[in-house]
Amino acid sequence: MPNHWVHHPIDTPAVLVHQEILQKNIHDMAVFAKTYHLALRPHIKTHKIPEIARMQLAAGAVGVTTAKLGEAEVMAAHGITDILIAYPIIGKEKLKRLEELRKIAKVMTVVDGREQALELSQYANERNLQFEVLMEMDSGLRRCGVLPGQDALALYRELAELPGIRLQGIMTHAGHAYGATGIDQVREIALQEGTIMVETAQLLREADLAAPEVSVGSTPTVRISGQVEGVTEIRPGNYVFNDLTQIRLGVATQDQCALRVATRIVSKPAEDRFIIDAGAKTFALDQGAHGTTGVSGYGRVVGHPECTIARLSEEHGIVIVQGATKLQVGDIIEIIPNHSCPVANLTNEVHVVSRGVVSAVWKVAARGKTS
Amino acid sequence: MPNHWVHHPIDTPAVLVHQEILQKNIHDMAVFAKTYHLALRPHIKTHKIPEIARMQLAAGAVGVTTAKLGEAEVMAAHGITDILIAYPIIGKEKLKRLEELRKIAKVMTVVDGREQALELSQYANERNLQFEVLMEMDSGLRRCGVLPGQDALALYRELAELPGIRLQGIMTHAGHAYGATGIDQVREIALQEGTIMVETAQLLREADLAAPEVSVGSTPTVRISGQVEGVTEIRPGNYVFNDLTQIRLGVATQDQCALRVATRIVSKPAEDRFIIDAGAKTFALDQGAHGTTGVSGYGRVVGHPECTIARLSEEHGIVIVQGATKLQVGDIIEIIPNHSCPVANLTNEVHVVSRGVVSAVWKVAARGKTS
Question: Which of helix, strand or coil describes residue B213?
Answer without folding.
Answer: strand
